[in-house]
Amino acid sequence: MKKSKIPLTEKKYYLLFGFLTMIFLMWGLALTMMDVLNKHFQSVLHISKSKSAMIQFSTFGAYAVMALPVGHFMKKFGYKNAILFGLFLYAIGALLFVPAANAMSFNYFLLALFVLASGLATLETVAHPFIASLGDHRTSDLRINFAQSFNGLGGVIGPAIGSFFLLKAAQQHVEDLTAVKHLYITICLVICMMAILLVILPVSRQINHSVIRQNLKNASLTNLQPTEHLFKKKHFSFAVIAQFFNVAAQGGTWAYFINYGHEIMHFSDEKAGYFFSLSIFLLMIGRFAGTFLMRYIVPYKLLAFFAFSNIIMCLLVAQGAGWLSYIALLFINFFFSIMYPTIFSLGLKNMGTQTQKASSYIVMGVVGGAFFPPIMGLIADHDIAKAYYLPILCYLVILLFGLKYPVLNKASAGQFEFKTKNT
């Protein structure tokens, strides 16, 4: 059977699949909004680029803290309760922005971001294996990439809203954090409405933990026994490492995107923020394009090609050569697009009944985004363009993961090969 003829998901899961894609959208919005906050706090709270990178440290550090506990929580209490718990933390974190803004305290903001990001980590740990299980295992890559496309849409909305309400406000009232308070109160209300919808809509009746576990167990590529240690699977171990470097590159690239536009292109912060939104739009386009291309190109090969492309983009960005470098900076997100979901789905192949636990470990790899931006910030304090040499190291690791994947996971490689022969 051709993989292109296999449906993305089953009809009985349409409503559930739609709700989960909305969750992907909302955490995309939150993550990219933090990169707008990075520049906003530099201006309003008068902090350096390297210090403002503590925003990324708090955000992605929460993923390392929460990933494994959420895996256990999900196993004990089920998917629905895990999603509600994630939405609760998201809403509380957004609400904590109010006292942080009143106190004009960067440290209080870091605490609020940590709580909010703990909610994001919870939702992400639950959503990926959940989405992967809603249909034929052979199209799990397509499902995750499709859902992540809405994460990209949220990423477009986030910096656009942030640039309009925060960076524009900063130009008019440099010492005023009122816009921050109002924006995050609104986000809190939206998240609360989503939690209520999850409780009252029929979609909640489809969130059955035992059924999803059975779906994972019945997949033909689930030969990992419950007693077998996760890290004996080399493709999974490398996926955790690749995800660490992938999010490290993302965190550093996004954290200083607006700074690059301001310092190299001499844009206003607001205008640079809109270009950041445009770059995330390219990311969304890349994910839709990647979802389509994966019907004809095996995922690990496409991943390797996109990683190599971003090495070229980073080399151009680091030259600080006007529009040529800036266009390359925009296209980093296009080629970055499929990396996170594809690394995730490739790492979960062959994991069977340990898929949920494996998902937790891959989410922990997101902690790379906590450590890399401060290092880039030390260079960016002196030369913002030269800081973009550092992500090249990350893309080299991802390139190696894509090239070596057939050897790391021979069973999955065999599965992928049938696709190219029959399309």
UniProtKB/TrEMBL annotation:
Major location (coarse): membrane
Keywords annotated in UniProt: Cell membrane, Membrane, Transmembrane, Transmembrane helix
Membrane topology term: Multi-pass membrane protein
Domain Major facilitator superfamily (MFS) profile residues, every copy: 16-410
Transmembrane segments: 12-33, 53-70, 82-102, 108-131, 152-170, 182-203, 236-257, 272-290, 302-321, 327-348, 360-380, 386-403
Protein name: L-fucose:H+ symporter permease
The species this protein was found in: Arachidicoccus soli
Cell compartments where the protein resides: Cell inner membrane
Molecular-function GO term, any one: fucose:proton symporter activity
